[in-house]
């Protein structure tokens, strides 16, 4: 269990090692072709040191990796990317966003799928502007109006990924408490729940509600997010949010445990069709 940057270094190193092996090169041969000492390749592959994007590009050239999506994903893991505004638009907010939040957005922007359990608030990708502001204001008591405006702007910009080509596939299990908590007041909640109904009808969004009647469930320990990547499952990661930081889980046993937990939640929650009716009913009574 580590913070995002360390996890990304290790994942990047593991993927580069696999690509080197597929290219039929030893670490010494790769270092010679790159014009480096062998120890540099070893440090990169073990994740013990940071790596510049230019070094990643050079290694990918040495290994004959031409796939633009794979190259972009690995460059994002190194801390940047070449893939256009979709993948680094948040750089304009570097002075405002905490590093852990930037790290989360970078993973989100590259993921092909996102599975999340939410127990307290509507997922950020589905929030209305006024709901997002109410949540942000509550989380950052005393923040200036300017900072609140900026953070809400970022949250709304993140939502573009649901309409990108291809879009992020979002699967979310929402505890009923998420729908009942009066964030921002009845008017804000009514409009937010109506927005959820609209989102639930999108082909790339799957929403399920865990009703109070289901009793205790495996998700009572807290919310989590699982990011999956189409090019390689080795880059999948679980993100756990805390008040002042985020933790990333990368071990296969952790990924398996959280994937099984999400599957269990999906089985015991209302079906997407039942959930849509439930949310619509909650919106009507908000």
From TrEMBL:
Ranges for domain HTH cro/C1-type come to 16-70
> What is an example of a GO molecular function annotated in this UniProt entry?
DNA binding
Q: Which domain of life is it from?
A: Bacteria
Q: What is this protein called?
A: Transcriptional regulator
